[in-house]
Amino acid sequence: MSGRRVGFCLSEKKRRRMNLDAFAEFCAGHGVEVVKIDLTQPLVPQGPFDVIIHKLSDVIVEAEHDSQSQQLLANFQNYVSAHPSTALLDPLPAMTQLLDRFASYRIMSKLHNSLRDWRICSPPYLEIYSATDLSSIHQAVMSQGLSFPLICKTRVAHGSLSHEMSLIFSVGSLADVHPPCVLQSFVNHGAILHKVFVVGDRHFCVERPSLKNFPSGPCDRKTIFFNSHQVSKPESSSDLTSLDEQMPRLPLPSSEAVAALARELRAQLGMALFGVDVIINIHTHTLSVIDINIFPGYEGVPQFFSSLLSHIESVLDKQTSAGPQATGSLESTHTTGGPSAV
To answer: Where are the annotated segments for Disordered (predicted)?
Structure first.
């Protein structure tokens, strides 16, 4: 591994959250050099790189309306195309689809078939593309098998606004929906969220606070607006996470089921670094997948540094065994489980 160079193309905020400086020291002790890539500067002088690990979510989203971001993204793509021996974690098309909840929810909806034996599913959901009348939305909600309360999430799954969500309790409150967005049946889960962090062929399950239980069916309660970060961070404390009733503690997710979920999604997504939000239905004890996250923060995963370095080493080993013709396709060739982001 000595002399290998791994480039990290991350925002400053992501570097701090990941503690990239500490990871660089950790890697240096194993003969791997970690390089911070500055996307605003020419990439060739910053290279060469054996592996590039990136989270270009900001740039991808902004490139839809900002010419400077379009150029930064084009420069990155041009560099990757010109250096096929550099492995890319993770492939841009795969990451891009997870920025669109319409695309990622289509992937999640297929899990019921592929993971039926593990009693894993995803709640019914509805894509709302544009503003329409309440009766049309209500009709679609009914025809798609959704039930109140509903949780509403933005279509774009990145940025501060993507964490702004709402709980809708009645047909009349569907007026609070702001398209484009996703409506999803809310599943009572005892105020516990299980975050599954995937790092290559390893995964870790961390428990977080989550929304409390609500009575099933429509009621005249006003829409509740909330920020998911404020509800489900490790240190979160909110009235929305305090159970109103005493209920037995739910069983932990089956380790075998979680492992099957991680394997299936890694194959479907063609990705190695992602997170999955899982809840357990208080009535059926089935596992419900409610979101997939690009390169999450990995808070609460003490083995993250060693697991990430181990995955980097495995990628480099494949690269070496493939010989001089090895390309970034080791990690970037994939079959998506759903349409690309719009």
So the answer is: 320-342
